[in-house]
Structures are given as structure tokens and as C-alpha cells.
Design goal:
Layout (H helix, E strand, L loop, with lengths): L1 H21 L4 E4 L10 E4 L5 E5 L2 E6 L4 E4 L10 E4 L5 E4 L5 E4 L4 E4 L13 E4 L5 E4 L5 E6 L4 E7 L8 E4 L5 E4 L7 E6 L4 E7 L3 E2 L2 E2 L5 E4 L4 E5 L11 E6 L4 E9 L8 E5 L5 E5 L1 E2 L4 E2 L2 E6 L4 E7 L8 E4 L5 E4 L17 E4 L2
């Protein structure tokens, strides 16, 4: 009888462990978005709310009551840049029309004249220490500086090369590190915002058939001011699985041995630096079978190693996520599994990664 009882207890424990593996304790479902969105952008507002813009839809999430509300903007945005300014407002830069979001009144105000009424498709932008905005796009080898207070532009010094939607990261000294931004562009440069000049800062190391090549990759600034380089494609449109670390001090990039990331284009997956210095990876898909990547990963800064932390509640591509003041991460929207063979509506599903 005792032997049978022990067998029953072992069976119950086994079932509990299996079910625990299938349900990831790191992720918690929240209330759905009011409208599904894909390739949208999230901005954390000073009061803790989250502004979501994209797909011609604008909505706000209030974490206190776990609810979404739509708001009216002056333009329907699909490929915008949005930046939280030093005064707590948000500027939305878009070739269709640019505007400010007042975080106190929750209203949008047009910027006149339209500051992006010029050849600036596929641009990237970032806030500088002085409150101005650096904008890099299809405008030769020069970038623009936009002053939100004066509502005017000035051209920068000549960049080291022409770039299309590059990765831009703000360093501790306020300068901007700029990577990629054109087909197989592996060059890196630094924008010195005090002197308004660009300087070459090295190259990536990924090599194929004797040539260095990588495009569409994601760059994440780590707490030690090294840069984690993941994803992207080579010159034959094959997914680059190799992971690199760029060292700002030496201006050299090193390939991490036995570490791989096959999440593909930077628009398919998201990576975000957590408060403990690790990096959370969500999304991406496997091109061979067209399936979304279900497992989430953490990149551990202490040992430069990826660890799988299980499945998020929904597998997604084209989602967005934002770091909250609590250290948790809000994950929204995207496309589910069936997107590869059909055109499903964007996901409304929202989940929280518990830090």
C-alpha cells in the first residue's frame, strides 16, 4: 500500500512539473488592446501610461486599470519615428505629417510647417543631450538636426557614408553611435553632438566568402557600453546567426564563439535591456518553415551567454515592447503564426514580462 501511495505521489509531482514547464511564470496576460497593431511603436510617458502609435491607430494603455483607450491624432501614422522629449511630450516624425503629443492634456498638435516635408523616407532619429533631435535618412551623406523649440533644421557635418534607417544608440557621454543602415554596410561611426562632426569607429566582423557582409541587424547597448549585434542577413539573404560584441573602447567587434541568434530581420523581433543588465529577446521567425519563434531568450551580460526562458504567451513578429518603471516589460501586438501563408489581422494580445 505504501509503495502504491509513493507511486501516486511521484505521478502527481511529474504532472505538476510538466505543466509548470508548459506555462511560463515569467509572462502574464493583460487585457487586450482596443485595436490590434503591428510594426507599431510604444513610448512610456512620464505618468506611467504607454502611448502606442502605428497602423493608422493611436491608443494609450493605463497600467493602473489595465485598460486601453483610443485617441485622435492629426495624421494616420504607419512608418513614423516617435521620441519622448525632455519636457515629457512626444514628437512624432512622419513623412505623412508630424505632430506633438502633449502628455498632460493627451492631445496632438500639428507641427507647422510640416518638418518632414522633404526626402526623408526610411529615416532614423534620436534625442540628443541638448534636447535637439538627430535625423538620418535618404538625404545624401548629411544628417539633420531638428530643434523642437525653434522648429527649425540645420545640416550636420558630412557623415562617413550614406545610411538607410541605421541603428542609433546614445552613449554615456551624449555622443551617438551609428551602425549599418544600408545593404551590407558594416561600418560604424560616432556623432559628436558638441562639435557637430562624424568620426569612423570601426567595422563589424561577420564574413562570407572572403567579404564582410551583414544587413538588417539589431544593435543593443549594454551597461558596460559594449554593443550586442544580433540577427540580420548576408548578401544572399540568408539569416546571420552569428552574434558579435562591439567594444567602444577598442573600436573592434568580436564574434562570440558558440553563441547564436537566428531571429532574422530586426523588424521581426525585439530586444530590450533590462534593469539587471540582461537583454530580453522576443519574436522572430524561422524562414525554413515560416513559423514564428515561440521561445523567449535572455542574453546574460556576465558570461555573454544566451539562455532560453520558455515560451511567451503568444509567438509574434512585428510586435513592440517597452521597459516600465517597475522593471517589467510590456509586450503588445504583432502578427501570429498564420501570417506567413495569409494576411491575418494584427494581434490585440498584450502580455507582461515579469522582471
Amino acid at each position: 500500500m505504501k509503495k502504491i501511495l509513493n507511486l501516486i505521489i511521484c505521478f502527481i509531482v511529474t504532472i505538476t512539473l510538466v505543466s509548470g514547464c508548459n506555462s511560463n511564470k515569467h509572462f502574464k496576460l493583460l487585457n487586450d488592446m482596443k485595436y490590434g497593431q503591428v510594426y507599431h511603436k510604444l513610448t512610456l510617458l512620464p505618468d506611467g501610461r504607454v502611448l502606442s502609435i502605428g497602423n493608422g491607430i493611436t491608443q494609450i494603455y493605463d497600467f493602473n486599470c489595465d485598460s486601453w483607450n483610443s485617441i485622435e491624432s492629426n495624421y494616420k501614422h504607419f512608418n513614423q519615428n516617435q521620441i519622448l522629449l525632455n519636457n515629457g511630450n512626444v514628437i512624432v516624425l512622419d513623412v505623412e505629417g508630424s505632430e506633438f503629443f502633449d502628455s498632460k492634456t493627451s492631445k496632438f498638435y500639428k507641427i507647422k510647417p510640416n518638418i518632414t516635408n522633404m526626402p526623408m523616407n526610411n529615416f532614423s532619429s534620436i534625442l540628443l543631450e541638448n534636447g535637439n533631435i538627430l535625423i538620418i535618412g535618404l538625404d545624401g551623406e548629411k544628417a539633420r538636426i531638428y530643434d523642437p523649440e525653434k522648429n527649425n533644421f540645420k545640416l550636420t557635418d558630412k557623415m562617413t557614408c550614406k545610411r538607410l534607417e541605421p541603428e542609433m544608440l546614445k552613449l554615456k557621454n551624449g555622443n551617438i553611435l551609428i551602425l549599418g543602415g544600408d545593404k551590407n554596410n558594416i561600418s560604424i561611426e560616432i556623432y559628436d553632438y558638441k562639435n557637430n562632426k562624424f568620426y569612423n569607429a570601426g567595422y563589424l566582423q561577420i564574413k562570407r566568402r572572403g567579404r564582410y557582409t551583414r544587413t538588417g541587424y539589431k544593435a543593443t547597448l549594454l551597461n558596460n557600453e559594449k554593443i550586442l549585434i544580433t540577427g540580420g542577413y548576408d548578401d544572399k539573404n540568408n539569416v546571420v546567426k552569428t552574434v558579435e560584441i562591439y567594444d567602444l573602447a577598442t573600436k573592434k567587434s568580436t564574434i562570440l564563439k558558440n553563441e547564436f541568434c537566428q531571429r532574422g530581420d530586426k523588424y521581426y523581433y525585439k530586444a530590450i535591456l533590462l534593469q539587471n543588465g540582461n537583454v530580453l529577446f522576443i519574436g522572430g521567425f524561422i524562414e525554413q518553415n515560416g513559423k514564428n519563434i515561440e521561445n523567449a531568450e535572455l542574453f546574460n551580460l556576465t558570461n555573454n551567454h544566451f539562455i532560453t526562458i520558455g515560451k511567451s504567451k503568444y509567438s509574434r513578429i512585428g510586435s513592440d515592447m517597452v521597459l516600465l518603471k517597475s522593471g517589467n516589460v510590456l509586450i503588445t501586438g504583432g502578427l501570429g503564426h498564420s501570417w506567413f501563408n495569409e494576411t491575418p489581422p494584427p494581434l490585440k494580445k498584450v502580455e507582461l514580462y515579469k522582471y
